[in-house]
């Protein structure tokens, strides 16, 4: 393996020992939960880029093509992808790291080694991974979360939602395996996004992720604007559903199935959330298509949705 340190350039440093949040794009992030949360932190908190990874070595540009502008008779304004580390300051003045950018297509082991070396240079001993997953639960019930870590102390109070299973990996999952080998604790949070909103923005999921990250990393993240946006989104979604009898009936069926699944169970919500059996769920694609059509029929493509998209799922 070539020297992993050649994959990044470090140009600054936060307070030594700052925890790190990981919100890479390209893998699963239902409801854009991690991406919206990360962008909100960048937009609302003091931050600066302190490290850049070499995306030419790590990313397949043909599968995720960067944007360029064609202006009348020439190309201009090429926008390269960036895989960067920012130092962000929370409300209490505490620094933390924020990894954003595309998940590497190549050199996963070397990238993980580079992250371990970089975190070692900065004295970071805790990494928190964030993303959203589609879940069989309605938006009218508490937003649930699955936590995973090799360190049981980091996930106390979170119930396991799965038995032992095999599934396609991600770089974030590999980091949860490799970083503890370098004595860096890791924990991942997967917020439960209603399956029919997997391809839409779901700010309530972003709130849930940031609250969980703040708790485990001991950060002060009030995020009042994001909370307000999440509340407004749910109100507008309820209004949209109420105007379409078919959607209202489908959501009602999900609520009944969800409530049946929780009856008589001790749930420490919002840290646990049951998953309704697939046969008891309306089709997520069908619901998403109906929401999208309703917005189109409203005239300007926004209607009661306030500009939120209910289109099909897709990673960037």
Automatic annotation (TrEMBL):
Bias (Basic and acidic residues): 293-303
Ranges of Gly residues composition bias in the record: 304-316
Source organism, top-level taxon: Bacteria
Matches recorded under InterPro entries: Proteasome_assmbl_chaperone_2, PSMG2_sf, Rv2714-like
Region (Disordered) location: 261-316
Pfam family name, one: PAC2
Transmembrane segments: none
Protein name per Swiss-Prot or TrEMBL: PAC2 family protein
Taxonomic source organism: Luteococcus japonicus LSP_Lj1
């Amino acid at each position: 393996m070539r020297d992993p340190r050649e994959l990044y350039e470090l140009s600054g440093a936060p307070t030594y020992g700052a925890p790190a949040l990981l919100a890479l794009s390209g893998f699963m992030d239902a409801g854009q939960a991690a991406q919206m949360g990360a962008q909100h932190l960048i937009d609302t908190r003091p931050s600066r880029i302190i490290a850049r990874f070499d995306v030419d070595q790590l990313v397949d540009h043909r599968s995720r093509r960067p944007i360029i502008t064609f202006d009348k008779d020439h190309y201009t304004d090429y926008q390269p992808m960036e895989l960067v580390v920012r130092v962000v300051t929370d409300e209490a003045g505490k620094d933390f790291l924020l990894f954003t950018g595309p998940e590497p297509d190549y050199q996963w082991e070397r990238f993980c080694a580079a992250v371990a070396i970089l975190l070692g240079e900065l004295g970071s001993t805790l990494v928190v991974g964030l993303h959203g997953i589609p879940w069989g639960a309605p938006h009218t019930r508490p937003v649930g979360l699955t936590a995973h870590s090799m360190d049981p102390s980091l996930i106390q109070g979170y119930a396991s939602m799965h038995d032992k299973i095999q599934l396609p990996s991600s770089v974030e999952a590999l980091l949860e395996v490799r970083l503890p080998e370098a004595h860096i604790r890791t924990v991942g949070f997967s917020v439960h996004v209603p399956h029919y909103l997997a391809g839409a923005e779901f700010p309530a999921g972003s709130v849930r992720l940031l609250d969980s990250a703040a708790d485990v990393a001991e950060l002060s993240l009030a995020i009042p604007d994001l909370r307000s946006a999440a509340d407004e989104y749910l109100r507008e979604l309820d209004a949209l559903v109420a105007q379409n009898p078919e959607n209202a009936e489908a959501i009602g069926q999900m609520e009944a199935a969800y409530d049946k699944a929780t009856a008589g169970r001790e749930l420490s919500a919002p840290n646990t959330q049951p998953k309704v059996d697939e046969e008891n769920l309306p089709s997520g694609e069908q619901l998403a298509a109906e929401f999208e059509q309703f917005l189109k029929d409203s005239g300007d493509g926004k209607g009661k949705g306030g500009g939120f998209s209910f289109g099909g799922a897709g990673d960037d």
